[in-house]
Amino acid sequence: MAEIDTQKDVYLFLHGKMDLREKATTALTTKGFAADKITMALPNKVGNVGDYMAMLWMPPNPDHIKIQQITKIDEVEPEGMIGLWKGVSKDDVDTIPLD
């Protein structure tokens, strides 16, 4: 596993599970991420290379958060709910249990 820079921005993907937002945020802050660096992911704005994606996994009944680091961003035409994130390449770096 790569070393995680907890001062980087984290884009949180809830996959429609808004009721788990607080639980996910708590799990991320317990892991060391700063609460002010955790942002809800939006389809029209992606992060930067080096930032992180945190997504509830595996939909539709997630039991952990998959942490991925953004490694590359390609310009793309936005598509559906994924939007601009379609052009983001990333590597898995860690997982955090939701319990």
Topology:
Elements: E1 10-13, H1 21-31, E2 38-40, E3 52-57, E4 64-73, E5 88-97
Parallel strand pairs: 1-2, 1-3
Antiparallel strand pairs: 3-4, 4-5
Please, could you describe this protein's structure?
This protein is mainly beta and 99 residues long. It has one domain (10-97). Helices cover 11% and strands 33% of the residues. It has one helix at residues 21-31; strands spanning 10-13, 38-40, 52-57, 64-73, 88-97. The chain has a five-stranded mixed beta sheet. A hairpin with a 6-residue loop joins strand 3 (52-57) and strand 4. The mean pLDDT is 94.
Uncertain parts: none
What's the main sheet like?
Answer: 5 strands, mixed
Subunit arrangement of the protein? single chain
Q: In percent terms, what proportion of residues is strand?
A: 25-35%
Total count of strands = 5
Q: How many helices in DSSP terms?
A: 1
The succession of helices and strands, N to C, reads: EHEEEE
Query: What portion of residues is helical?
Result: 10-25%
Task: Give me the Rg, rounded.
Answer: 13 Å
Distance between the termini: 21 Å
Number of domains: 1
Which descriptor suits the 3D outline? globular
Mean pLDDT: 94
Which structural class is indicated by helix and strand composition?
mainly beta
Strand order of the biggest β-sheet:
2-1-3-4-5
